[in-house]
Design a protein that fits this description.
This protein is α/β, with parallel strands linked by helices and 368 residues long. The chain has 2 domains: 129 residues, Response regulator (Rossmann fold, 3-Layer(aba) Sandwich), CATH 3.40.50.2300; 209 residues, Rossmann fold, CATH 3.40.50.180. Helices cover 39% and strands 19% of the residues. The protein is built from 13 helices and 15 strands. The strands form 3 sheets. It has a 7-stranded parallel β-sheet with strand order 8-10-7-6-13-14-15, sandwiched between helices. It has a 5-stranded parallel β-sheet with strand order 2-1-3-4-5, with helices on both faces. A hairpin with a 2-residue loop joins β11 and β12. The chain is globular. The C terminus is likely disordered.
């Protein structure tokens, strides 16, 4: 990661560009240039050679999605999307993350008060700093390769890329059902978009997903994943039921706790390390209830969320798989688990669907 990332700000509003520039500069980053909209972005990138770009979603002449697509084809660069907190803005932001953006942040208010300035600055600066270390070129190349073998939608239980038979997925139903937990952060939406469509429709157990995102964006992510995945994906409710072949996504702004076998609830407890939801809470509460019948999958992400939960899970006899460094956008969360000696296997993202399916199908609880 560059010691002081060079940032280019792209937004059609001169006032918004100034607000973002001031926030980034106040946070110690180096803003090297600006672009008025997507049509000017490529020329500005060539001129200023930034390490990271902040990109507005909705712009005249050329919108953020079109500009992002052009950028990733011609000069892949880490991008943090700045989005309005609307249904349309959230939907387009999720699409941007699939196209190659590293992260998304809610667009700052034009008139920030002294009490909101610091919080807004810290969130933006943290995400831009994290994005600076993202492995964008490698992941874009992998995405282009995957596009030639795009998975089917709901009509088919298996994709062409996945060598998983229905008998393998179905065998898990004969055991006392396990639980799969997926924890991820920066780069997670794209990773989930590759992983979830390639899990079998008859996986044989419930799935819980913790993805760090701003409040208001997780519902759109769940809807997008559900649209493309054989299993059902939805945002978890205040209290909910863990159902076979259904993935519950923790809503941003709440911690997701496992309260008993087959049951979850949302907690409004304070953030831990600025994170809410915190994957550690989901993992540790699941370990207390499901014991050795939990499979934890830690995907790309900045920081170490998941390490504490993984330690609790290993003490309970559960299993942990981590995404390998070569496929991670940010090798942070998986690295923390690996360095703590808690990973049972480092798996490339394209092999993770099969690894999960085989682990679930072969599960034999102690004493069974």
């Amino acid at each position: 990661m560059p010691a002081q990332p060079r940032v280019l700000v792209c937004d059609d509003s001169p006032l918004m560009r100034k607000v973002i520039r001031d926030l980034l500069t106040d946070g110690g980053l180096n803003v090297v240039g600006e672009a008025a909209d997507g049509a000017d972005l490529l020329a500005a990138v060539q001129q200023h050679n930034p390490d990271v770009i902040t990109l507005d979603v909705e712009m005249p002449r050329q919108d953020g999605l079109t500009a992002l697509g052009n950028l990733m084809r011609s000069r892949p660069t880490p991008v943090v999307m700045c989005s309005t907190l609307t249904a349309q803005g959230a939907h387009e932001s999720i699409r941007a993350l699939e196209l190659g953006a590293v992260d998304v942040v809610q667009k700052p208010a034009l008139r920030l008060t002294p009490s909101t300035w610091g919080v807004t600055r810290d969130e933006l600066v943290d995400k831009v700093r994290s994005a600076a270390s993202a492995n964008v070129r490698q992941t874009v190349a992998r995405q282009e390769q995957a596009a030639t073998l795009a998975p089917p939608r709901k009509a088919s239980p298996f994709s062409k890329r996945r060598s998983v038979g229905a008998d393998l997925a179905g065998r898990a139903a004969g055991n006392k059902r396990p639980l799969v937990i997926i924890a991820t952060s920066t780069g997670g939406p794209r990773a989930l978009n590759e992983l979830m469509p390639r899990l079998p429709a008859q996986l044989g157990c419930g799935v819980l997903i913790v993805q760090h995102m701003p409040v208001g964006f997780t519902r759109s992510l769940a809807e997008r994943l559900d649209q493309h995945s054989p299993i059902t994906v939805r945002e978890a409710g205040r209290t909910d039921t863990i159902t076979p072949d259904v993935a519950l996504l923790a809503p941003a702004g709440f911690h997701l706790e496992v309260t008993s076998v087959g049951s979850t609830r949302l907690s409004d407890a304070p953030p831990i390390g600025k994170l809410k939801p915190r994957a550690d809470i989901t993992i540790s509460t699941a370990a207390k209830v499901y014991r050795d019948r939990v499979l934890l999958v830690v995907l790309t992400g900045m920081g170490s969320d998941g390490e504490t939960g993984a330690a609790d899970l290993k003490r309970a006899g559960g299993r942990v798989l981590t995404e390998s460094e070569k496929s991670c956008v940010i090798y942070g969360m998986p690295r923390a688990v690996v360095m703590a000696g808690l990973s049972d296997g480092e798996i490339p993202l394209d092999a993770m669907p099969l690894a999960i399916t085989e682990a679930v199908a072969a599960w034999t609880p102690r004493g069974a």
